Amino acid sequence: MKSTAHKRVFSGKLRLIIAFFLVPSCGHAQQAELDSILRKIEYKKDSIFSIFKWVTSTLEYDPTRLLLVSGGTAYGSTSQNIVREAINRRKGVCEHYATLFNALLRRAGYESYVVEGYTRQGAGDDPFGHVWNAVKSGGTWYFYDPTWAAGYLQRSVFVKSFNPDWYKVPPLRFIETHIPFDPIWQLLNPPLTHAQIRDGVFENAALTSFSYQDSINVSVKMDEFRRIRASLARTRSMGIPNSVVEKYLAGGDRYISNAGDYHVLNNTHQLLSNATSAYNEYIFSKNNQFKSPRWTDEMLESFSGKMKVYLDSANRALSAVSPGDFRNAQYQLQLKKQVAEITEAADKEAIFIKKYLATWKPMRMQHFYKLK
After folding, report:
1. Which residue of 129, 238, 263, 264 has the fewest C-beta atoms within 10 A of its own C-beta?
2. Which residues contact 192 (CB under 8 A, 6 or more apart)?
């Protein structure tokens, strides 16, 4: 019986895994929530005070979560998640008060930032980290602590009692009790050392050319990774006066390490994306017998080399990463699986290309048909 030839369709189109992308600081749904709150607030003459009063009266302090801020807020935790939790639970710790206040002010058009640090009450440093706000009002910077203004703890029980002393506090008075980890957020020219603050010396004649505003302007323009790394360097330069600062720096170092790994993994993802695109372009042309789009012998000869460059680079990058973070470890595992899939597919096509190019051109069409 005469054999018949059937055109072969080469499938095997590759799909790349989806990377773990960071959650944006404020999504559209949350913006709507913030707008709804801003509309409900009863505004007096001072709109910042009205928002401040709403936050302090609406949230309730949750002392069971006090240990969460033992060394500052968690690196990598998004403000969106903290705001969502504050709105939904109507309770929390200092990071919830400060982050919600910050989100509402920013939504209302004010320049506001969350500041992390430690506090002093009496002669010693408090054993827990703390979070508050720096807000520019009328061209001047002031500090606001909605947590301390909301009330106080009495035998581990929160007593709601509004205290206006922690509203719109000038930097030189605020530094007596609130010491930011990053010295630029003292909002003083120049910043004070931990020893000066401990000894109650609130004047500094050194570094008279220092400008915290210039430093802030540079800092806020940086991406998160560079901003945190620079902040840690400034914090470390001021010394380590207590365990709170020590824990903050250790947490920051871990975050930088994990963020560095994440950056490498994302670059690897891009390499695999390029490899996948190159492979899929090849398969598309192969299914059209390399006629449309036309692939020359030179293009086919270079294809395997191009794939090898992508895959070797990806393997080197993955081998250099030893993630201590669970999410990065999962990301790395998925990328390794993807490298293995692409490598297997590319090796198979390298064999096909070698046979195809070794065949006399008039006979090459046989590689696109199978006999039955």
Report:
1. 263
2. 175, 183, 186, 201, 202, 204
Cα(186)–Cα(86) distance, integer angstroms: 26
Residue 205 has what pLDDT?
55
Task: Convert the pLDDT of each residue in 14-48 to its tens digit.
Answer: 544 333 333 334 567 788 899 999 999 999 889 99
Round to whole Å and give the CA distance between 179 and 195: 12
Whether residue 363 is predicted with pLDDT greater than 50 in this model: the reply is yes
CA angle 67, 55, 41 (to 5 degrees): 165
Of 193, 138, 198, the residue nearest 168 (C-alpha): 138
How far apart are alpha carbons 178 and 171 in whole angstroms?
Answer: 9
Cβ neighbour number for residue 75 with a 10 Å cutoff: 17
The model's pLDDT over 55-72, given as tens digits with 9 standing for 90+, comes to 999 999 998 776 555 444
Dist CA 321 CA 311 (whole Å): 16
Break the chain into its structural domains and give their ranges: 5-17+259-371, 28-258
Helix 28-40 to helix 94-107 angle (10° resolution) is 90
From the list 118, 89, 86, the residue with the least C-alpha distance to 103 is: 86
**pLDDT at position 372 over 80:** no
